[in-house]
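ok new one. same drill as before - structure tokens go in, u give me an amino acid for every spot. 344 of them this time. try not to just spam alanines like last time pls lmao
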């Protein structure tokens, strides 16, 4: 019997999170319990780009899930230099990069500066994008790599303190919101009350304008019967991360996701340990990718995802494990299942 030919993916893409590069010796997180490899994170990025560049099937695009450089660059007057270093590495890869903004982007740059920078992929993409309302300063957009599939990049700090002028109304509104839950002098210090931990300065949320835009984009995707993957820095399902890494109003965004049949996956960074949960309400896969910054130099932390009509196969490298995300076929079918996939 002849062997059946191997099924070819419709497209592939790479994904990497929390590089947090800085030309500094190793350090620790804010509680000094976790080692961070600031300088050698660049080598792990190089490893990822080399793998994508030399792959037999090269990725069509790369998702960079935020925190591309570390906040310590700001105090060393090295923000521009560090960003140029990592973007140079990305530019040597085989495909364009779609950048998500995390808290460390805002430690280094103002929102207005980011909107003008090379990290604004909506402006710099070669693809046609559907951006958030032009009269807002929200960094959110969607694009379609092939017919029937689309990706949505979200702005997890649209509501927040980071990157905002302290004199602005948006800053004042965010400060009022966080103060309702966090009464610490240092707002980077959480209140340890379950899900209330998420109300810290290094997290943020989504405005009504952004949520309404997302709802509209997903309604259109539902009508077209598209498969949609949503991408952001902050996780939005409590079981895909620790509470301290959740978006402030994750519940509002989760409600919108659950109301649309088109969404198949939500990808996030921020939680360097990574995480995964399949939401029983709709079967959406919530993946939190392990962060490069806390990955030892002798390992790796990136993935390549192959997309088929009925599933996405994620091939992890180093700390990132292999997974298969199956798509829900119809309203009456069993909800999506995730299966560990051993790929030789």
């Amino acid at each position: 019997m002849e062997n059946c030919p191997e099924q070819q993916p419709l497209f592939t893409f790479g994904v990497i999170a929390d590089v947090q590069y800085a030309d500094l010796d190793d350090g620790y997180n804010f509680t000094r319990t976790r080692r961070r490899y600031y300088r050698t994170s660049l080598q792990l990025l190089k490893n990822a780009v080399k793998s994508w560049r030399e792959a037999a099937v090269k990725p069509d695009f790369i998702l960079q899930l935020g925190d591309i450089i570390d906040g310590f660059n700001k105090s060393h007057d090295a923000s521009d230099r560090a960003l140029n270093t990592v973007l140079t590495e990305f530019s040597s890869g085989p495909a364009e990069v779609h950048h998500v903004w995390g808290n460390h982007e805002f430690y280094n740059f103002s929102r207005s500066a980011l909107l003008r920078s090379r990290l604004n992929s909506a402006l710099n993409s070669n693809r046609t994008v559907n951006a958030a309302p032009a009269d807002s300063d929200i960094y959110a957009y969607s694009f379609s790599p092939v017919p029937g599939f689309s990706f949505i990049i979200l702005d997890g700090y649209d509501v927040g303190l980071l990157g905002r002028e302290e004199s602005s109304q948006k800053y004042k509104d965010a400060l009022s919101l966080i103060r309702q839950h966090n009464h610490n002098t240092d707002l980077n210090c959480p209140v340890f009350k379950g899900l209330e931990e998420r109300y810290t300065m290094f997290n943020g949320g989504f405005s009504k304008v952004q949520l309404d835009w997302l709802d509209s984009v997903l309604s259109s995707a539902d009508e077209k019967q598209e498969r949609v993957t949503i991408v952001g820095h902050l996780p939005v399902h409590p079981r895909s991360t620790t509470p301290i890494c959740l978006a402030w109003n994750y519940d509002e965004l989760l409600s919108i996701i659950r109301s649309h049949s088109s969404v198949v996956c939500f990808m996030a960074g921020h939680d360097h340990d990574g995480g995964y949960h399949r939401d029983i309400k709709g079967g959406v896969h919530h993946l939190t990718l392990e962060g490069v910054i806390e990955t030892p130099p002798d390992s790796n932390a990136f993935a390549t995802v192959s997309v088929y009509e009925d599933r996405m196969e994620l091939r992890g490298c180093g700390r990132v494990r292999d997974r298969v995300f199956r798509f829900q076929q119809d309203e009456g079918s069993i909800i999506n299942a995730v299966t560990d996939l051993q790929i030789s």
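Residues 331-344 have pLDDT under 50 and may be disordered. and btw The chain is about 25% helix and 20% strand.
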